[in-house]
Amino acid sequence: xxxxxxxxxxxxxxxxxxxxxxxxxxxxxxxxxxxxxxxxxxxxxxxxxxxxxxxxxxxxxxxxxxxxxxxxxxxxxxxxxxxxxxxxxxxxxxxxxxxxxxxxxxxxxxxxxxxxxxx
Length: 119
Description:
de novo design (two linked rop proteins); 4 helices
């Protein structure tokens, strides 16, 4: 069985969530159950699906859970872009958030490819 805590992509996803959570608290109160909630769910989904994938016995199932995590990473990026466009937050000086999301997306994609190429 795989230990999800040992995967760099899980660690990066977890740290990204920890980094972005305080940013979400800057959203207007009116977005508490809207975009803020959606973004939290997408962020949590990334590391959660990586962890769940580690519990799967087949490589195909593991890769499928990674695909779901990757989709959540793109969803979180889209939601952050929307929050920035709507001026709920200003991330102009902190492009590292987007850079970290892009790096995580690449890492997840690479692991999916590695697993699929084993077949």
